[in-house]
């Protein structure tokens, strides 16, 4: 009781400014932790907003598809598209990477540069056009054993580290050849997140097949067995040819479109196998064919098939 009386007497003789200062300090002591928590939550909210921003979603999707991490890519697609094609069929229809090969491709994908070139918003969605540059897989083929998954996935931890460090050093020095690309994406908001809308329900399915008779030492795989295109943007058919034999193999290709009437609507704008190519023994090469489908094709054809017939000679 005496201490309380003594404190009141002391405060009575203190200048008013010091009393105000004491009260201010008391308020700061009591409420500073709450301010820190509020600031942390506000910062976290900003980070979450950035993480769900359309451009960030596009960048994550492009990096995932480049690295052939199709599980990650699928998570960025809209629910409307996912109802057309489930994750299992989507992933199994692509030639994805596994093990250290997937980690290596992901490292190269992290070197991607992306910039927004055009944006138009309307209603609940937005349409964004981007340009990007990413390391050319062919440029590092000699360093990564022609992208042989068997060889890459068998490397020791020390060998993996050396390879990743070598790629990082080349990137810092600007010694990686890059490829340029541009794409237009439509995104819609689902809850607090932005999702890429591919309009698979309104697209044309293109299934790809291959024919190679009489050769067991040559393996041909498509990176995608089924492609859905709206006809507004070119689409690519990507394949890998592997020579398991002991001699170089000369590969020639021709392709057939079914139904044949669809040939009038489909234009090949790039062919990586326009001429015969040589695949050295124990190596793998990847090739791309780019097509543009007339947007009116959907009225006549809901499904197309591209069959690639290969001829291999020693």
Layout of helices and strands, plus pairs?
Blueprint lengths: L1 H12 L2 H36 L2 H13 L3 H5 L4 H6 L2 H6 L6 H11 L3 E10 L2 E11 L13 H5 L3 H16 L5 E13 L2 E4 L7 E8 L6 E5 L3 E4 L5 E9 L5 E10 L7 E6 L5 E3 L4 E10 L9 E11 L1
Parallel strand pairs: 5-13
Antiparallel strand pairs: 1-2, 2-3, 3-4, 5-7, 6-8, 8-12, 9-11, 9-13, 10-12
Helix pairs in contact: 7-9
How would you summarize this macromolecular structure in one to three sentences?
The protein has 314 residues and is of the alpha+beta class. 35% of the residues lie in helices and 33% in strands.
**Which CATH class of the largest domain?**
Alpha Beta
Q: Compute the gyration radius: what is it?
A: 29 Å
Query: How many runs of DSSP E, i.e. beta strands?
Result: 13
- CATH architecture classification name of the largest domain: Roll
Q: What is the overall silhouette?
A: globular
Termini separation comes to 106 Å
The percentage of residues in β strands lies in 25-35%
Contiguous low-pLDDT stretches (5 residues minimum) are 1-14, 17-29, 35-52
How would you characterize this protein structure?
The protein is an alpha+beta fold and 314 residues long. It has 3 domains: 2-50, no CATH class; 52-200, Nuclear Transport Factor 2, Chain: A, CATH 3.10.450; 203-314, Ctag/Cox11 (Pfam 04442), CATH 2.60.370. 35% of the residues lie in helices and 33% in strands. The chain has 9 helices and 13 strands. The protein has helices spanning 2-13, 16-51, 54-66, 70-74, 79-84, 87-92, 99-109, 149-153, 157-172, and strands at residues 113-122, 125-135, 178-190, 193-196, 204-211, 218-222, 226-229, 235-243, 249-258, 266-271, 277-279, 284-293, 303-313. The protein has a 5-stranded mixed β-sheet with strand order 7-5-13-9-11, with no helix packed on it. Strands 1-2-3-4 form a 4-stranded antiparallel β-sheet. Strands 6-8-12-10 form a 4-stranded antiparallel β-sheet, with no helix packed on it. β1 and β2 (125-135) form a beta hairpin. α7 packs parallel to α9 (157-172). The longest helix has 36 residues, at 16-51. The model is unreliable at 1-14, 17-29 and 35-52 (pLDDT under 50).
